[in-house]
Amino acid sequence: MPHAARFLENPFQLHITFDLAATFLFAVTGALAAISRRYDFVGVLVLAFVTGLGGALLRDGLFLQFGPPAVVTDGRYLVAVALGAATGVFFGKRLHRFQIPFLLADAVALGTYGVVGANKSIAAGLPMLTALLVGAVNAVGGGLLRDLLVHDVPLVFRPGEFYALAAMAGELVFIGLTRGAGLPGTLSALIAIAAAFAVRILSVWLGWRTEALSGEDGTGER
């Protein structure tokens, strides 16, 4: 039997801790975004919920469709959102600037959700390329909804942001380590998350940029 087929028949089942960790971290970024805009506690909770669970809801509701999404049937996800909101409030009261904690939490969550989404898609029998795309949607979905709700240009759309690319880089590392190197799933996931985190942070630190596409006059208008 081809190695790829064996991999699809026996995909690695990542522990739910990875999913909950990504939910928590994205919820923190949602809470920080709400606090920076002086929202009340309802706004903080709503933005933490949407950011923490948005990507997973898109993944399970649109692509995998195995009944009600786990994030609404398992109370641990709501606990992770609540803890993320509380963490955001705790640190938000003590920090005047949110850029660094926001960036770090978002980068870790980005890599984690990318790996989780790719792994769950492979477990569902999706082709490898589709699994990569679903993992990317899983990774960027919560941040996309967060930015839209606070009227920011989503990070995934901004020229110069290695955002979806960072998530997909981590997914490729995960698949390569599990399929090619035969490493255990948990170890592969941790390395892949670190890789996605490194790509995201280095892109900001070193100024790696993608270029904006422009129209014929160079202004974006034709």
TrEMBL record:
Bilayer-spanning residue ranges: 12-34, 41-58, 70-91, 122-141, 162-181, 187-208
**Compartments in which it is found:** Cell membrane
Highest rank taxon of the organism: Bacteria
Protein name stated in the entry? Glycine transporter domain-containing protein
Going by the UniProt record, its keywords in alphabetical order are: Cell membrane, Membrane, Transmembrane, Transmembrane helix
User: What species does this protein belong to?
Assistant: Anaeromyxobacter dehalogenans (strain 2CP-C)
Family label: Belongs to the UPF0126 family.
Q: Which Pfam families match?
A: Gly_transporter
Q: How does it sit in the membrane?
A: Multi-pass membrane protein
The residue ranges of the Glycine transporter domain are 17-91, 104-177
